[in-house]
Design goal:
This protein is mainly α. It has one domain. The protein is about 65% helix and about 5% strand. It has helices spanning about 5-20, 25-30, 50-70, 75-95, 95-105, 110-120, 125-130, 130-135, 140-165, 165-170; strands at about 35-40, 45. The longest helix has 24 residues, at about 140-165. The chain is globular, with a radius of gyration of 21 Å. The two termini are about 15 Å apart.
Length: about 190
């Protein structure tokens, strides 16, 4: 069995890696399933909405991975549309919408982008990528900026990976089929 390496296979792998970045946050939110409500000082109680959102996030990641490795890799049109919906209604709101709301809240000052990417200067971003450093040091703002910047990067990588093979999905010959395995057997 020989698997051909084509552009959609590489892009499916790239998009899979981007989707896998959502798993830690989904697991962290889903792990709160034992708590029905959160208690805050001052007798304030809030219902636990993190648990269903965590399971929803994990489910959407699994759907995305299944679609990528079954239909998208074979260049089926329905898989392209499913990944477009995932990108616009799952990845965009989680990663880019927050940054856009920050820009809107500051009166459309695009200088907030320079603040977000300041954390990527020498040693600042590497320090924030480790969970123990973020939890133990007072650099929480830098760590948040790195998270936002990585989210924007994940969205842009997935957008490019989705839009670059559009020709392979929509402008192919009517009878052409893409083969993922070699049918030729050596005698």
């Amino acid at each position: 069995m020989k698997i051909r390496c084509n552009a959609t296979l590489i892009l499916a792998l790239l998009m899979s890696l981007c989707l896998v970045t959502f798993i830690p946050a989904g697991l962290r939110n889903a792990s709160t399933w034992k708590e029905f409500e959160f208690k805050y000082p001052g007798a304030m109680r809030l219902q636990n909405y993190l648990m269903p959102l965590g399971f929803l996030s994990l489910g959407l990641v699994m759907i995305g991975l299944i679609v990528l490795w079954t239909g998208y890799r074979k260049r089926e049109r329905w898989a392209w549309f499913v990944m477009l919906i995932q990108l616009m209604f799952f990845v965009f709101p989680l990663n880019v919408l927050y940054m856009l709301s920050l820009i809107w809240a500051h009166g459309y000052q695009w200088s907030i982008l320079s603040y977000l990417f300041e954390a990527f200067r020498e040693e600042g971003w590497w320090r924030c990528l480790t969970i123990t450093t973020c939890a133990n040091q007072s650099g929480g703002i830098e760590c948040g900026a790195v998270g936002i910047a990585i989210g924007i990067l994940v969205f842009l990588v997935m957008l490019i990976a989705l839009l670059s093979p559009v020709k392979a999905f929509f402008w192919r010959q009517p009878g052409a089929q893409v083969k993922t395995e070699s049918l030729h057997k050596e005698a």
